[in-house]
C-alpha cells in the first residue's frame, strides 16, 4: 500500500519536510517510485502566480524539441530551474538528462481568454507534449499549470531527494503532496506515480481500486481530452474529482457521494435523499469500491482527505493553525508536526471528508449523512 | 415381422432410438406403475415367449423342447412413441427394475422424425452441452495490497438498475429544470425470464410467484419475474404483488386485453414492461403455444378459443420496421402507465442486435435491452431453429457493451443477458462472467425449472416435450392430472433456496475481486479464458 503525506502551510516550506515523513513511513512502501506536488509556491515563483509552469523529465533531444514546440505556440520562458543530477549513477534510479521546471510567459493572444478556455488549452498542450514524447520517451511531462510543480521518478524517496537536490531554496511551497509507492498493479511506470493532476485538481491514493476498468471506460467516453493516461488504477480519482466538481458542479462535500454513495437505509433518511439517489444512479460506474484513502487538493488550495467505506486503517489529519498535515500513517504526521495537539487529530471514518481550507486555520469535517450544498 | 417380408422405410429397431429402456425381468413385479406414468407411452406390458432346448446325453429320454411364456415390459419403436429418456419409469419403479439409457451411437430416429411432412417441433433446449461461459475464469484476485473482503460477513450491495439512466450531466440538468426523468427500478441482477402462464402449469407459475414474493418481502431481495406472453391472472394484476412482476407483451398480444382493462384497478405499477421481439431459442420466430396446452383457463386469460394452437407472428405485425416498432411501442407502453414504468425490448442475440441497441440509445423512453442467446429454452420450436440458429450470448453482450462504451452510454442503457446461463449448473459463475462482460443483469428460465421444479430436461435431448403438454413433472402441462404432481409451496421454497444460494456464490466471486458496493458491470480485467480466439473476441485476457 502506498504511503501518502500532504501538508498545507501558511509559510512556504521545503518539500524535504514531506519526504522526511515518507521516510519515517518507509516500512509501508517499497521505494519503487515517488511523486511530489508543490502548489501555492513560494520563492522565485511567488511573483509569477499566473504563469504556467511546465514540469517534466527531458532528454537533450527532447528539450530541443520542446523549445521549438513552445516557441511556435508563442510561449516565452520566464524562469526556470533545471535539476542537474550528479554524474555518478545511484542504484535504482534511472539515468536521465534533465529534470525541468520552467515558468512561461503566456502568448499575447491568450490575454482575453476566459479561465475555462485557458484551462482547456493548457491541458491540451500538456497532452500534446506527452504524446510527442511517448515514442522515444524523450519528453515526459507531468503538469503544465500556473503555480504548480510536479516531480516524479522511479526510486526510493529519500535517495531521490538527495539525488535531485530537492533541498534547494527555490523550491518552496505552501501545499506539498508526496507519495512513496508500493506495488503498483500495473507496470512500474513513471506516469503511474501519484499525485495525479488535472486542471488544478490533484489526488493521491493508497489501496487498490478494483473498479478501475469500468471507471476508466466511463471517463474516457465522456469526450474530455484530458481524461486519459491511466497507467495507474489510482489516476481515475483525480479525474472523478474534476468530473464531480467541474462537470457536475458539486461541492467537495458531493465528491464522496460520487465515489462512495450511501447505502439504501442511510440514503432513505438523508435530507437530500431525492437528489442523492439520482446522483448514485447516474454516477454508478464511478463508485470506487476501494478500499482507498484519497488525499487531494482543489484549485482554491483546500486540502482534503476521504476514506472508502471499507477502509480498515484510516489516514490521519492533524496540526495547528497555519500548518496541517495529512498522512496515511500517524508516524508520518508525528515526524513533521510533533508539537501539535495530538488529541485533536482526526482519523476520517467512512462517512467523513476532512477539509482544511485555504486559510489553514482548522479541520472541518463533512459527514455524508448531513445535508449538502446542492448545485441546483 | 417375418424375415422374407419387405421392410418399411421407417421401420426402426430399438437400437435406432435415442433412448433405450433397460428392463430387468428378475426384479419386476409387474405392478404397472412404469407404463402408467410414461408420458409418451413408450412402454407397454409385453408377452414374451421363450423356447428352451433340453439336450441330454441319453438318446431319447429327457431330450426335448420346452415352451415358456413370461411377462415383461416392451419398448415401442415407432417414432411417435419413442422413449424420451425422462426416467419417470425409474422414479416410480418400486424395485429399480427399469431405466432408460442414452444410445451411445448415432440415433437413426433423426432421419425419420419428420413424418407426414411435418418437421419435428420440440420444447426444451439446444442440446449442446458446451458453453464458453463455463470456460471463463475470474483471474483478478486481490490478495496483497489490501485485505480481501469476507463474503460471509461483509456488507454487499448486489443490485442493478432496470431503466434508462441519464448521463450524470443530463440528469442534473433535468433535476434543475424539473424535467421528466425516466423511471428506474433497483432490482436484483438475477431475473426470472419470460415463461408464460400457459406455457407453465398453474402450479408452477403460482410457485414461482410465491417464491418471488417471499424473496422480496421476507428476504429483502428485490427479485423480479417476467410473465412471458399470455397475460397475467386478473387477481395478480390487481394485487400489491404486481410490483414484482415484469409484464411481457409479445407479437401475438395474447392476454393484453385483460392487462389493459386492469390498469385502472392496479394498486401498484408493474416493475417494467418487456416487449418481446425475439427469443434466443427460435430467433426470427414468434412464440407458439400448441393446442394441447390451451385449456379453458388459458383460453380465458388469453381471450381465445380453447383447444387451438396459438402462434405469435415473428414480429409485431402492426408495425412496419424495428425502428418504428421500438419507438412506437415503447412510447405507447410508457404512456399507458403515465411514464412511470420502464419499458424495454427483448430481442434474440444476432449480428443485428447492435442495430436495435443503436436505435434505443437515441430514445429516452427506452429503458434497457434484453438479449436472449442461442442457448435459450422454449416451449415449442422447430428443431432446426433450436439447433442451428442464433448467436452465442457472450460475444453478443460484449459487442453491445463495447459499442455503448464507444458512444459513452454504457451506464445509461442496461443490457440484460439471457439464454443458457447456468445450463451446466454453474449459474453464479456464468452470471458473474456475463456481468463482467457488460451485462447489467441476467435472465434465467430453464435453470429455474430445473432447480425449483425438478425439470428433467438436459442438453442430451432428454424429455423436451414441454410443447405437447405431457411434462412428466407437471411443470409445463395444463393437464390437472399432471400438474397436481407439483406442489406450488415446494416450488416457492426451492425458488427461495435457489436465489439465496446464488447470492452467496455471487458474493464468493465478487468479494475476492474486491467489489462490494457496486455490481462489477464491465469489469473485464477480472476475466480470463484458455482460448486465444475467444479471448480476442471478448477482449479479455488469454490465460493458460
From TrEMBL, chain A:
Transmembrane domains' residue ranges: none
* Coiled-coil ranges per UniProt: none
Which molecular function terms from Gene Ontology are attached? transferase activity
The answer, when asked if Cell membrane is one of the entry's keywords, is no
Record InterPro entries = GATase_2_dom, Ntn_hydrolases_N
Q: Domain (Glutamine amidotransferase type-2): give its ranges.
A: 2-357
Q: What is this protein called?
A: Glutamine amidotransferase type 2 family protein
Q: Which UniProt keywords apply?
A: Glutamine amidotransferase, Transferase
The answer on whether this UniProt entry bears the keyword Transferase reads: yes
Automatic annotation (TrEMBL), chain B:
PANTHER family recorded for this chain? ARCHAEAL-TYPE GLUTAMATE SYNTHASE [NADPH] (PTHR43819:SF1)
Keywords, comma-separated and alphabetical: 4Fe-4S, Amino-acid biosynthesis, Glutamate biosynthesis, Iron, Iron-sulfur, Metal-binding, Oxidoreductase
Taxonomic lineage is: Bacteria, Pseudomonadati, Thermodesulfobacteriota, Desulfobacteria, Desulfobacterales
Q: Where is the 4Fe-4S ferredoxin-type domain?
A: 19-48, 73-103
Looking up Pfam families in the UniProt record yields:
Fer4_16 (PF13484), Glu_synthase (PF01645)
One GO biological process term is:
glutamate biosynthetic process
* Protein residues bound to [4Fe-4S] cluster 1: 93
What's its catalytic activity? Answer: 2 L-glutamate + NADP(+) = L-glutamine + 2-oxoglutarate + NADPH + H(+)
Q: Name one GO molecular function term.
A: glutamate synthase (NADPH) activity
Per the UniProt entry, the Enzyme Commission number(s) are 1.4.1.13
- Highest taxon in the source lineage: Bacteria
Q: Does the keyword 4Fe-4S apply?
A: yes
Q: Which residues are listed for [4Fe-4S] cluster 2 binding in this entry?
A: 83, 86, 89
> Would the keyword Iron-sulfur be found if you checked this record's keyword annotation?
yes
Q: What is this protein called?
A: glutamate synthase (NADPH)
Task: Extract the InterPro entries matched here.
Answer: 4Fe4S_Fe-S-bd, 4Fe4S_Fe_S_CS, Aldolase_TIM, GltB, Glu_synthdom
Q: Which Gene3D superfamilies match?
A: 3.30.70.20, Aldolase class I
Q: Which family does it belong to?
A: Belongs to the glutamate synthase family.
Amino acid at each position: 500500500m502506498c504511503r501518502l503525506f500532504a501538508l498545507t502551510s501558511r509559510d512556504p516550506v521545503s518539500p524535504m519536510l514531506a519526504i522526511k515523513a515518507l521516510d519515517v513511513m518507509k516500512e509501508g512502501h517499497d521505494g519503487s517510485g515517488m511523486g511530489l506536488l508543490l502548489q501555492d509556491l513560494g520563492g522565485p515563483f511567488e511573483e509569477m502566480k499566473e504563469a504556467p509552469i511546465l514540469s517534466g523529465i527531458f532528454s537533450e533531444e527532447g528539450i530541443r524539441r520542446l523549445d521549438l514546440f513552445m516557441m511556435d505556440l508563442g510561449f516565452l520562458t520566464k524562469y526556470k530551474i533545471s535539476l542537474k543530477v550528479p554524474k555518478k549513477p545511484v542504484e535504482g534510479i534511472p539515468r536521465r538528462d534533465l529534470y525541468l521546471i520552467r515558468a512561461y510567459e503566456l502568448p499575447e493572444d491568450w490575454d482575453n481568454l476566459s479561465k475555462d478556455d485557458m484551462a482547456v488549452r493548457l491541458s491540451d498542450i500538456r497532452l500534446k507534449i506527452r504524446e510527442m514524447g511517448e515514442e522515444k520517451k524523450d519528453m515526459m511531462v507531468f503538469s503544465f499549470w500556473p503555480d504548480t510543480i510536479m516531480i516524479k521518478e522511479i526510486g526510493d524517496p529519500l535517495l531521490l531527494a538527495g539525488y535531485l537536490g530537492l533541498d534547494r531554496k527555490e523550491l518552496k511551497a505552501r501545499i506539498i503532496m508526496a507519495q512513496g509507492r508500493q506495488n503498483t498493479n500495473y507496470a512500474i511506470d513513471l506516469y503511474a506515480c501519484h499525485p495525479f493532476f488535472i486542471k488544478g485538481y490533484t489526488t493521491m491514493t493508497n489501496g487498490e481500486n478494483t473498479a478501475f476498468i469500468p471507471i476508466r471506460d466511463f471517463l474516457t467516453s465522456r469526450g474530455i481530452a484530458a481524461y486519459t493516461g491511466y497507467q495507474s488504477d489510482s489516476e481515475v480519482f483525480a479525474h472523478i474529482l474534476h468530473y464531480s466538481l467541474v462537470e457536475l458542479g458539486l461541492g467537495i462535500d458531493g465528491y464522496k457521494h460520487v465515489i462512495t454513495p450511501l447505502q439504501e437505509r442511510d440514503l432513505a433518511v438523508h435530507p437530500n435523499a431525492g437528489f442523492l439517489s439520482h446522483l448514485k444512479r447516474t454516477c454508478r460506474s464511478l463508485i470506487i469500491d476501494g478500499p482507498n484513502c484519497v488525499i487531494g487538493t482543489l484549485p482554491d488550495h483546500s486540502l482534503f482527505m476521504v476514506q472508502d467505506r471499507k477502509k480498515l486503517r484510516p489516514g490521519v489529519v492533524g496540526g495547528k493553525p497555519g500548518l496541517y498535515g495529512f498522512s496515511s500513517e500517524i508516524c508520518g504526521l508525528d515526524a513533521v508536526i510533533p508539537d501539535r495537539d495530538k488529541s485533536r487529530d482526526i482519523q476520517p471514518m467512512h462517512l467523513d471528508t476532512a477539509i482544511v481550507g485555504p486559510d489553514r486555520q482548522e479541520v472541518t469535517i463533512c459527514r455524508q449523512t448531513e445535508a449538502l450544498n446542492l448545485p441546483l | 415381422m417375418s424375415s422374407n417380408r419387405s421392410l418399411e422405410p421407417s421401420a426402426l429397431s430399438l437400437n435406432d432410438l435415442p433412448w433405450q429402456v433397460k428392463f430387468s425381468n428378475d426384479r419386476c413385479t409387474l405392478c404397472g406403475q412404469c407404463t402408467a406414468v410414461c408420458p409418451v407411452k413408450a412402454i407397454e406390458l409385453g408377452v414374451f415367449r421363450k423356447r428352451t432346448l433340453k439336450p441330454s446325453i441319453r438318446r431319447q429320454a429327457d431330450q426335448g423342447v420346452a415352451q415358456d411364456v413370461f411377462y415383461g415390459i416392451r419398448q415401442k419403436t415407432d417414432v411417435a412413441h419413442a422413449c424420451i429418456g425422462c426416467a419417470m419409469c425409474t422414479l416410480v419403479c418400486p424395485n429399480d427394475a427399469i431405466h432408460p439409457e442414452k444410445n451411445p451411437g448415432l440415433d437413426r430416429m433423426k432421419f425419420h422424425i419428420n413424418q407426414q411432412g411435418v418437421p419435428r417441433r420440440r420444447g426444451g433446449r439446444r442440446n449442446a452441452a458446451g458453453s464458453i461461459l463455463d470456460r471463463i475464469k475470474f483471474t483478478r484476485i486481490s490478495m496483497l495490497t489490501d485485505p480481501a473482503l469476507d463474503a460471509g460477513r461483509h456488507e454487499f450491495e448486489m443490485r442493478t438498475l432496470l431503466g434508462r439512466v441519464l448521463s450524470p450531466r443530463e440528469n442534473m440538468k433535468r433535476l434543475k429544470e424539473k424535467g421528466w426523468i425516466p423511471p428506474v427500478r433497483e432490482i436484483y441482477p438475477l431475473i426470472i425470464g419470460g415463461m408464460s402462464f400457459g406455457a407453465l402449469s398453474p402450479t408452477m407459475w403460482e410457485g414461482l410467484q410465491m417464491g418471488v414474493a417471499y424473496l422480496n418481502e421476507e428476504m429483502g431481495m428485490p427479485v423480479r419475474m417476467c410473465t412471458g406472453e399470455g397475460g397475467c391472472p386478473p387477481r395478480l394484476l390487481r394485487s400489491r404483488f404486481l410490483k414484482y412482476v415484469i409484464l411481457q407483451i409479445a407479437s401475438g398480444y395474447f392476454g393484453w386485453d385483460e392487462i389493459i382493462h386492469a390498469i385502472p384497478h392496479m394498486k401498484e405499477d408493474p416493475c417494467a414492461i418487456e416487449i418481446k421481439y425475439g427469443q434466443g431459442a427460435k430467433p426470427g420466430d414468434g412464440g407458439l403455444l400448441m393446442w394441447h396446452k390451451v385449456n379453458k383457463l388459458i383460453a380465458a386469460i388469453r381471450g381465445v378459443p380453447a383447444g387451438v394452437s396459438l402462434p405469435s407472428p415473428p414480429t409485431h405485425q402492426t408495425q412496419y420496421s424495428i425502428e418504428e416498432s421500438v419507438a412506437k411501442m415503447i412510447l405507447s407502453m410508457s404512456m399507458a402507465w403515465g411514464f412511470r414504468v420502464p419499458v424495454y425490448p427483448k430481442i434474440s442475440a444476432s449480428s443485428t442486435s447492435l442495430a436495435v441497441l443503436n436505435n434505443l440509445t437515441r430514445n429516452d423512453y427506452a429503458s434497457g435491452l434484453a438479449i436472449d442467446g442461442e442457448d435459450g429454452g422454449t416451449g415449442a420450436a422447430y428443431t432446426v431453429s433450436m439447433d442451428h440458429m442464433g448467436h452465442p450470448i457472450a460475444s453478443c453482450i460484449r459487442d453491445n457493451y463495447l459499442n455503448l462504451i464507444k458512444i459513452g452510454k454504457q451506464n445509461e442503457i442496461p443490457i440484460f443477458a439471457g439464454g443458457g446461463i447456468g445450463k451446466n449448473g454453474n449459474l453464479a459463475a456464468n452470471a458473474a462472467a456475463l456481468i463482467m462482460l457488460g451485462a447489467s443483469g441476467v435472465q434465467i428460465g430453464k435453470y429455474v425449472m430445473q432447480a425449483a421444479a425438478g425439470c428433467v430436461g438436459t442438453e442430451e435431448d432428454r424429455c423436451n416435450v414441454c410443447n405437447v403438454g405431457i411434462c412428466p413433472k407437471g411443470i409445463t402441462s395444463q393437464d390437472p392430472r399432471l400438474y397436481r404432481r407439483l406442489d406450488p409451496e415446494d416450488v416457492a421454497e426451492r425458488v427461495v433456496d435457489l436465489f439465496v444460494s446464488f447470492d452467496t456464490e455471487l458474493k464468493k466471486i465478487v468479494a475476492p475481486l474486491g467489489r462490494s458496493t457496486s455490481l462489477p458491470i464491465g469489469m473485464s480485467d477480472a476475466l480470463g479464458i484458455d482460448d486465444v480466439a475467444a479471448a480476442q473476441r471478448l477482449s479479455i485476457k488469454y490465460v493458460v
